[in-house]
């Protein structure tokens, strides 16, 4: 429905409603979806979807991401600043225990374990997320997950005081579990609570808060703040703050209405959740859409990973998510983050300004993610993904050229730095957040938890592989090592261009039907769709009549 406001003698206004179909055609023709008001023939048409971005929805997106993806991003960068102090702590503890200094090989091994065990914990978290989500729901899983963050913060903060480097390693492992669960439960929750015309923008809160977490870790790790020998443990104590903020706010926000209706069979709870998230009383259309999706699915119960792998109805959706999530990690951004300082040193920058240059990369990342969130509903997922990967390929190629000529031309290191910033901005323009959105959009309700489990497994295994293999690739190929990532980005762009349909402003059923042809599945005819709608309407009318009879008898 559209609310129409007509001036009456320039002094009073009255409201009335027109049919949705007619007004939608007018606005689609005039391409003014982004406007709050538009004057046509003396009338102001206010599209209802502009009223759907409610405070409740924004709070759920922000605070849900703050205690989840923000912590993931924070942990990606927070260990860089205190690295020397942590290694010194390992050496001091070793001397106290064994009466001799730790060997260089041992301290390198302990440090490598401290960094990489985060990815192993993430894999454990991703594998366990499906079971927890099935039992506790989306919101319940996010709330439980805060306990892992608090426990990790305590272990990491008290490790130095207790003279136990094992506490630091275990704390990083638990923090990885927290991140693995968060990157499955949060995108699922955001995708299910959002109206379709805001689903991409709300989903990008995940990416924006990851980038903000990375940037916050860089800022707090500055020597002027907490990046000092006497204060580095407070970098890890900070982990408890976002988790506690989420625990204070999220319990007062609704659970996913799709989860309540399709998995808990709680129609009253789902209706209340839709009303709060959308800011309107009449949510019959949204309830009908979920009922239609439920009727269209062969299995209403949550399928297992094995069932998902065997199902021909979602084969290409699954392949697309695996390819996209693998490209998300293998496109080379992690190599940039893990080895930025080394690349910048080789590029000719002095040691004193390296922390500030690294800080600028985090700022660019956050800014690019915010811009992507603002334009995703207008441009679409597919163009942003292809543009991001292709741009990364271009700038990685240029970076390779500049690194090979940096010893010959004095100003060449600055071009290398510009390329690093461009790679980061390209990544965050699409590939940095859209893979998580797509994982939620390409699958209907019963397949979604298993899909996120597979996507999370691919994500964390790929993350671990980059951290493990890139040093050897760099040692072998030297300045040509980034060409490996050029190949990954180009192949990913080609695949997405050929296979991925656009998903913006589409229901989950519409997206599934977009893959029906490539999956060689029958597409419902208009008659079948109408029959499905009529059956749902009759069911809803029957329920309303039963409720009326009960009230009459009472």
TrEMBL record:
GO annotations of cellular component type: plasma membrane
InterPro entries in the cross-refs: GLUT (IPR045263), MFS_dom (IPR020846), MFS_sugar_transport-like (IPR005828), MFS_trans_sf (IPR036259), Sugar/inositol_transpt (IPR003663), Sugar_transporter_CS (IPR005829)
Alphabetized PROSITE patterns for the sequence: MFS (PS50850), SUGAR_TRANSPORT_1 (PS00216), SUGAR_TRANSPORT_2 (PS00217)
The keyword Protease is assigned to this record: no
Superkingdom of origin organism: Eukaryota
Positions of transmembrane segments: 12-32, 53-74, 109-133, 140-158, 170-190, 202-220, 232-253, 318-340, 352-376, 383-402, 414-438, 450-473, 479-500
Keyword presence, Membrane: yes
BP GO terms, sorted: D-glucose import; dehydroascorbic acid transport
Residue ranges annotated for the Major facilitator superfamily (MFS) profile domain, each copy included: 61-504
Cellular location(s): Membrane
Membrane topology value: Multi-pass membrane protein
GO molecular function annotations of the record: D-glucose transmembrane transporter activity
Family matches, as Pfam families: Sugar_tr
SUPFAM superfamilies from the UniProt entry: MFS general substrate transporter
Annotated keywords: Membrane, Transmembrane, Transmembrane helix, Transport
Family per similarity comment: Belongs to the major facilitator superfamily. Sugar transporter (TC 2.A.1.1) family.
Protein name: Solute carrier family 2 member 9
Species, as recorded: Haplochromis burtoni
